[in-house]
Amino acid sequence: MLETDSLSLVDVLAEAISCRTAKVGVIGLGYVGLPLIDAFTRAGFQCVGFDVDPNKIEDLNAGRSYIKHISSSTIQNWQRNELFQATADMSGLGEVDVVLICVPTPLTDSRDPDLSFVESTARAISENIRSGQLIVLESTTYPSTTRDVVLPILERNAKGLRCGQDYFLAYSPEREDPGNTQFVAANIPKVVGGYDSASLNLASQLYAGAVVSVVPVATLEIAEACKILENTYRAVNIALVNELKVLFDSMGIDIWSVIDAAKTKPFGFHAFYPGPGLGGHCIPIDPFYLSWLARKQGLSTRFIELAGEVNSSMPTYVIGKVVECLNDYGKPVRGSKICVIGVAYKKDVDDPRESPSFELIKHLLDRGADVSFHDPFIPELPSMRHYQLPPMTSSDLTREFLVVQDCILISTDHTSVDYALIVKHGVLVIDTRNACRGIADKQKCVRMS
Question: Residues with Cβ < 8 Å from 215, sequence gap 6 or more?
Fold first, then answer.
């Protein structure tokens, strides 16, 4: 294609973005895709959501949300303003001007990156691509994915269209923090890397129209590595406090009090907190992407691998504490009634991805415990890829329920849970999140310090 034609494609798309007439397609309507649609519709862009799950499509087109922090009224408002529709028909990708990829990037059983969702999405785009489109990968992944995985699929099937000439390619890592009302998609800065200068400029202009600020970087790989660094930083520091939790517990030192004291330092320290394990899509997974990439380069990432070992060992440590405490009451785990508080991976969200609660429940069931759970945001125990657990529904935390439990295990510290009630009526309370601070009866409440 002639250079003048290439320039005209850039100009046409740039003008459409500037005038908010560019139609934005989002593939993957989960905890990243829906907040992103919210940011773009609020900015006046018309959005089309694509997903292979027909239940999600049905819910969204009926104005029903399945994510706590995106309400049904929000979705209905998108529809009322004629700014949103959802579809499972990927042929519609040819009708949008921008394609944002927000699909899962899990790990395989051997902890290698599973890019099958990214690859199948790239193939669907390539079969429907047209000239003048901008394609942006948002899914968290290892550096070089956009260039070495997505681009070859697009080039192989894209009807002879060439990246940087006929269509444009960028990477911008998602930065969602579910449950944190201070930061939503629209007020979180977006890092953007482009295949070339035209791709970078178009993607930067697009996000600048919907979020508070844009941080352009020189390459696709820098943008990809940025996301991995952010989450590896958190994983390593959480592993540090988890390891110190075990050490200080053996010495009778309260880790929570230590952290409270340390964070009074106004420089050089940032507080991280221990827990029963890591949850969410990013922190338990992203560092292993980097470890895998290092092995491909013939290198090792010892800090990252050690952090993964420490964090992965926390559910076993918690179960050991349950066994020890029940033993003090003269009870075996087998046959004991144990209620796990919280199956979401963090407080005040309905997101169960990679939640350590599933590992805890599995361990307890394997040991013969009579297990129940309570979660105000998750009424039924969801099906998880790595766990074959029996069906359960959330139990009501009544006095009658609590008094017959042999142990209450607090795994997720949802704000709305009545911890005073738990401490008052629970026989034994094991608190992995310091949720009972200030109300704990030391005779029956064990903080995981």
Answer: 189, 190, 191, 192
